[in-house]
Amino acid sequence: SPLKSAFPLSARRHQPFLPLNRLPGVSASGMGLRLSQKFVFLLFLSGLVTLCFGALFFLPDSVRLKRIFLSKTEIQPVTVGSGSENDVREHVKRPKEQEHLRGMTPAKGDAQEEFKRCLAKAPLGRDGGKPSDPQTHERREKVKEMMKFAWDNYKHFAWGKNELRPLTRNGHIGNMFGECQGASIIDSLDTLYIMGLMEEYNDAKEWVQTSLDLNSNGEASLFEVNIRYVGGLLSAYYLTGEELFKTKVLELGEKLLPAFNTPTGIPRGVINLGSGTSWSWGWASAGSSILAEFGTLHLEFVHLSELSNNPIYTEKVMNIRKLLNKIEKPHGLYPNFLSPVSGNWVQHHVSIGGLGDSFYEYLIKSYLMSDKTDEDAKNMYYSALEAIEANLVQKSPGGLTYMAEWRGGILDHKMGHLACFSGGMIGIGADDGAQEKRQHYLDLAAEITHTCHESYTRSATKLGPEAFRFDGGAEATATRLSDRYYILRPEVIESYMYMWRLTHDPKYREWGWEAVEALEQHCRVESGFSGIRDVYTMTVSHDNMQQSFFLSETLKYLYLLFSDDDLLSLEDWVFNTEAHPLPIVRRSCMQDGATQDKTASK
């Protein structure tokens, strides 16, 4: 503080006290001051006043004092919406003065404790989800061993890097996360924890505490940082209660906000976490934003608002939804490219796979995570699903149901591995559809999951290609060399897990075990797991990459598939698109608690 620097501590502590009659320049009779000393005294007094007011207006914690001295018209609250980076950061720092949109009442004080109380209970179930069936238990233990093997090799050869290169035994940084590192660590926190690998979990937690640096520059994907880092830290906090994870995720969440500083509030896809500057991907059509990227923020941002007591995160994602509801959609479909400047669609390419996929997933999951109170998300999801069924769902001559892609009204009879998540998505949404369509949705989910399983069984390795086609006599097989690779993707196994939870049909566990055997035979190498370049040949060529999502998603979904349903129960948890579990926010519980408190106080 400038006030303290004007009076050094040593001088203040050791200056002797002098009696008035011994003060220099003061007469014993009149104690009057000479003219020159009056001038010095006034000069000192004016300097002191200047220092006080300087501290008042320029020290960072002076905002409350400013409100005392300045009129209300001079101190205007920062508005939410598009604006400068400084506007966003000031809004994050100032005390919350608004309420969450759509009844998301901000929690503070006792309300924050009530929020915690109403989150999911016993996430690990009665006995960590341990199945009673010996064979299923043995299979679950095998998946746990695979996770430990993958983790141990990452720690030994690539610790702190984003991913492991198992053939060359070194780390890979990549360019999706700017200069942020440790993606495999953040992605693995919850998987290690639910598997009971506590030594490994504690190593990961220590790295977060000592080495996770969020003040980085470089080109970072808003989407990837959100689903992996924000999602991973949120789930680690909710599962363990460790405040470290909460502190880190709130620090990171603030750094993502400048991406929304566009004329429409639709965020750009790339952000520099250090400077806050953002831009669109160079490959995106006409500087557009991607549906699956700006549409895959809602779950995490709602929880950021809950934990920070700041509505800005919820407001940002609700603004996206408001714009999407307003603009015209061709045949009820959502194209993959949208201009963040004009708010108009840039191309009429529609896909349930890459570029579109998780937008639809987050609609139904937003509804479920809100404890089924977010009616807007529900209506958007079922309207979109109706349009998808009318325009994209097809049946092959061999009887396989698949999701085609739509290019300006022309169907491309291709289905990507990424689109295979949709079996699970349609399954978890089946029970909340119209009464007469619930069984239909469950049947559709089963048919799509069956088709994706066929894409695995029709390859030599029993692993599925990146994309498979239904034309030229082909069914559920890749016809192009560029589509024949497998990079440890989880989407097919994800649908197996959901369909097992919903139906308990044993075939889903059998299909999951087939995948385990194929991964062990073709993807396990001496120092980790690697993707392969061609699923149709038994002489495999490895791509030398152990993806972080293999640890976060593929192995977690397999572990859950062979666990009892009370391990991360779907009644209490929703998984983000990187398989990080987030608790359902039970507003009814919080309202009941508030009612009980009022009754007790009477």
Automatic annotation (TrEMBL):
Main location: membrane
Biological processes annotated in GO: carbohydrate metabolic process
Active site: residue positions: E224, D357, E466, E491
InterPro entries reported for this sequence: 6hp_glycosidase-like_sf, Glyco_hydro_47, Glycosyl_Hydrolase_47, Seven-hairpin_glycosidases
Composition skew (Basic and acidic residues), residue ranges: 86-102
Lineage top rank: taxon: Eukaryota
A single GO cellular-component term on record: Golgi membrane
Intrachain disulfide bonds: C420-C452
Keywords: Calcium, Disulfide bond, Glycosidase, Hydrolase, Membrane, Metal-binding, Signal-anchor, Transmembrane, Transmembrane helix
Calcium keyword on record: yes
Catalysis performed (reactions): N(4)-(alpha-D-Man-(1->2)-alpha-D-Man-(1->2)-alpha-D-Man-(1->3)-[alpha-D-Man-(1->3)-[alpha-D-Man-(1->2)-alpha-D-Man-(1->6)]-alpha-D-Man-(1->6)]-beta-D-Man-(1->4)-beta-D-GlcNAc-(1->4)-beta-D-GlcNAc)-L-asparaginyl-[protein] (N-glucan mannose isomer 8A1,2,3B1,3) + 3 H2O = N(4)-(alpha-D-Man-(1->3)-[alpha-D-Man-(1->3)-[alpha-D-Man-(1->6)]-alpha-D-Man-(1->6)]-beta-D-Man-(1->4)-beta-D-GlcNAc-(1->4)-beta-D-GlcNAc)-L-asparaginyl-[protein] (N-glucan mannose isomer 5A1,2) + 3 beta-D-mannose; N(4)-(alpha-D-Man-(1->2)-alpha-D-Man-(1->2)-alpha-D-Man-(1->3)-[alpha-D-Man-(1->2)-alpha-D-Man-(1->3)-[alpha-D-Man-(1->2)-alpha-D-Man-(1->6)]-alpha-D-Man-(1->6)]-beta-D-Man-(1->4)-beta-D-GlcNAc-(1->4)-beta-D-GlcNAc)-L-asparaginyl-[protein] (N-glucan mannose isomer 9A1,2,3B1,2,3) + 4 H2O = N(4)-(alpha-D-Man-(1->3)-[alpha-D-Man-(1->3)-[alpha-D-Man-(1->6)]-alpha-D-Man-(1->6)]-beta-D-Man-(1->4)-beta-D-GlcNAc-(1->4)-beta-D-GlcNAc)-L-asparaginyl-[protein] (N-glucan mannose isomer 5A1,2) + 4 beta-D-mannose
Family: Belongs to the glycosyl hydrolase 47 family.
Function: Involved in the maturation of Asn-linked oligosaccharides. Progressively trim alpha-1,2-linked mannose residues from Man(9)GlcNAc(2) to produce Man(5)GlcNAc(2).
Protein name: alpha-1,2-Mannosidase
Gene: man1c1
